[in-house]
Backbone:
């Protein structure tokens, strides 16, 4: 609570938003509500919906190497375009069975015995 008071002193405003740095459970969430936090950001990645709990919002991580397009994609979908592409391609490859088959050996190709 002392840290919260210190955060409120300089700007002169109430600190009503919280970020759980190491995750949370219902007990921690209850304490956050009890001490007056209105919203909180969880450690779950992704976008939150309109019906999500105000004390358990998802978060969207923005990285310093993100391009403007990545930033825009993260705000819209929760992930960067290259991550979405990778997820889509990985799912497609797994679904098609390409990754489940072992690759033929290259040994002996082009060599005289």
Residues:
């Amino acid at each position: 609570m002392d840290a919260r008071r210190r955060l409120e002193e300089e700007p002169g405003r109430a600190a009503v938003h919280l970020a759980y740095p190491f995750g949370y459970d219902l007990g921690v969430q209850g304490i956050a509500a009890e001490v007056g936090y209105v919203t909180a950001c969880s450690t779950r990645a992704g976008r939150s919906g309109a019906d999500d709990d105000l004390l358990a919002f998802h978060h969207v991580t923005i990285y310093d190497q993100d391009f403007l397009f990545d930033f825009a994609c993260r705000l819209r979908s929760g992930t960067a375009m290259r991550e979405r592409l990778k997820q889509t391609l990985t799912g497609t490859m797994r679904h098609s069975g390409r990754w489940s088959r072992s690759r033929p050996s290259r040994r002996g190709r082009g060599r005289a015995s």
About this structure: The longest helix spans residues 81-96. The first strand starts at residue 17 and ends at 19. The helical segments are 2-9, 26-34, 68-77, 81-96. The chain has four helices and three strands.
